[in-house]
Design a protein that fits this description.
This is ClpP/crotonase. The chain has helices at about 75-90, 110-125, 135, 170-175, 200-210, 210-220, 225-235, 245-255, 260-275, 280-295, 300-310; strands at about 15, 25, 50-55, 60-65, 95-100, 105, 155-160, 165, 180, 185-190, 225, 240. With about 325 residues, the protein is an alpha/beta fold.
């Protein structure tokens, strides 16, 4: 059941004035006039090129916010998003995250201007480019491009693709848990067209989703896919009218949030192990002997069974897995 904005649970939040109104958390950087205290155990880390908001108190929304650069992600962005998703996984009150983009792009990939500057720096004798070591070497965290293309993590992330989704942007959605796309969105791996390779984790994962021949077509031709074709290939869960992808992603996230947080974590882990190539029996054994045993000791399993017997809505507690 939805709650009115007057509900005390929303006290640490304000309604943003965006195309799709969301609840934005009040941090000291946003206001010095209000002394509202968050329900988070720790504040979210700083992310310079993304907007952080909370459609509900249990859902994190990350909006890539470099619209004039088609939301290309630079080296700093990879590491800041990695810190943000680590915080998300460790924050008990949050259950699901949504990633989208501002403007006409979801994400067009790497920041090629930074890349070109790094190439120029490496070719000069003094190497004084003003770039950080990470930027000069074009490094990424272990979680990959945008901290998502190779992410394992604990909690689900839904990509709401609002437009162009190329290169690293496409690598991110290939490893996302669910993908919702606006009808005008396009997906592609155009790396071969500019003499590079999709090395952030997409190639080996792509073949498991779309099959060998389709993966070859995407990687070798660089041909972009329209949203409906991407759905037919299995890259996208749902295609919605223009401007509705975030709204639809929030609906999916709310369905996830309504379930036991322990069940969501363990179910996701079981699916992920199978997708990553672990044998079916080994993945089942690991899920039973490791995850299920931990889950069985928690309150949510007892609460789920009890609420079913008592014919009432369950009252979940934050997961301790």
């Amino acid at each position: 059941m939805s709650r009115p904005l007057s509900d005390p649970v929303f006290k640490p939040y304000v309604l943003s004035h965006t195309a799709i109104p969301v609840l934005a958390f009040l941090t000291p950087s946003l206001t010095n006039k209000m002394s509202t205290k968050s329900s988070f155990t720790t504040p979210p880390p700083a992310v310079h090129d993304s907007l952080i908001s909370f459609p509900t108190p249990q859902i994190l929304q990350v909006t890539l916010n470099r619209p004039t650069a088609l939301n290309c992600i630079n080296t700093r962005g990879h590491y800041e998003l990695d810190a943000l998703y680590t915080w998300f996984d460790n924050e008990p009150s949050l259950r699901c995250a949504i990633l989208t983009g501002a403007g006409r792009a979801f994400c067009a990939g790497a920041d090629l201007k930074e890349w070109d500057n790094a190439n120029h720096s490496s070719s000069t004798q003094d190497g004084k480019s003003g770039l950080s070591r990470e930027a000069s070497e074009r490094t990424m965290p272990p979680s990959g491009f945008g901290a998502l293309s190779r992410r394992g993590g604990k909690k689900p992330i839904i990509c709401a693709v609002n437009g162009i989704c190329f290169g690293g942007g496409c690598e991110m959605i290939i490893n996302a848990d669910m993908v919702v796309a606006d009808e005008g969105a396009q997906f592609g791996l155009p790396e071969a067209k500019i003499g590079v390779v999709a090395l952030a984790g997409a190639l080996s994962r792509l073949v498991r989703t779309v099959g060998r021949q389709r993966a070859m077509e995407m990687a070798l031709t660089g041909r972009p896919l329209k949203a409906e074709e991407a759905r037919e290939w299995g890259l996208v869960n749902r295609v919605v009218p223009k401007g509705k992808c975030v709204e639809e992603a929030i609906k999916l996230a709310e369905m996830i949030v309504g379930n036991s947080p322990d069940s969501v974590i363990v179910s996701r882990e079981g699916v992920k192990m199978g997708w990553e190539g672990i044998g079916a029996e080994e993945a089942t054994r690991w899920t039973q002997e490791v995850w299920y045993k931990r889950m069985d000791k928690g309150e949510n399993m007892k609460e789920g069974v009890r609420s079913f017997v008592e014919k009432r809505k369950p009252r979940w507690v934050p997961s301790k897995l």
